[in-house]
# Entry
Amino acid sequence: MARLKPLSKLGEDGGSLGIYVGNQPSFEKEAKAKTVADKVLGFDVQWQLGESEGWKSADALLRFPPQGKGRGDMAPMVHLFASAPDDAGLERLRALARMLTIEKR
# Structure
């Protein structure tokens, strides 16, 4: 798990973008949640938007590689989770997620 925090003014919290790669993500799909389509790591995703204690949040979950394209039955999952004090901050974090790439070695 990694957490990215954008630069912000001293004393201000601009939020963070978390990245989890593994087989046990903490993502919980909510049937009534608003979703927004996007593309991350070259794959189509649906961000699930929410709010808690005045902070905006967004979660997305994808299998990597997608089911049926990797070895074995269990493809690891990538759970992206962002939280920010406002919509503009949350959009900056989602834009940061769109810039993520996978490096092949």
Observations:
- The two ends are 20 Å apart (CA to CA).
- The longest strand covers residues 43-52.
